[in-house]
């Protein structure tokens, strides 16, 4: 029985016939495409999301009548809840509609 128990346990090999460890593998087309997607496409999508977020925030600030929001198309100057008031000198002043 002792011979069967010792045969089942692996014995350390004294010879160095194992293959060397390869540290470098040449790039494949799949790896190049994956790297290009990460470094070129994802920043582009990130920029789009930041731009849309800025547009949304500006539109929200304009619709809520927060000061400092400039709108260049003159057809959109009056927003809901914002009405033009005239000061004592006759100039138009933006103000909240909840007076």
UniProtKB/TrEMBL annotation:
InterPro entries: OMP_MIM1/TOM13_mt
GO biological process: mitochondrial outer membrane translocase complex assembly; protein insertion into mitochondrial outer membrane
Region Disordered, annotated ranges: 1-20
Record GO cellular component, one term: mitochondrial outer membrane
Pfam families named among the record's database cross-references: TOM13
PANTHER family: MITOCHONDRIAL IMPORT PROTEIN 1
The protein's name in its UniProt record: (Perigord truffle) hypothetical protein
Organism: Tuber melanosporum (strain Mel28)
């Amino acid at each position: 029985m002792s011979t069967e128990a010792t045969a089942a346990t692996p014995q350390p090999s004294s010879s160095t016939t194992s293959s060397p460890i390869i540290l470098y593998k040449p790039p494949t087309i799949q790896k190049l495409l994956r790297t290009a997607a990460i470094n070129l496409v994802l920043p582009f999508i990130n920029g789009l999301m930041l731009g849309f977020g800025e547009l949304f925030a500006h539109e929200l600030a304009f619709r809520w009548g927060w000061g400092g929001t400039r709108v260049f198309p003159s057809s959109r100057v009056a927003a809901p809840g914002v009405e033009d008031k005239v000061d004592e000198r006759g100039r138009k002043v933006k103000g909240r509609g909840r007076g």
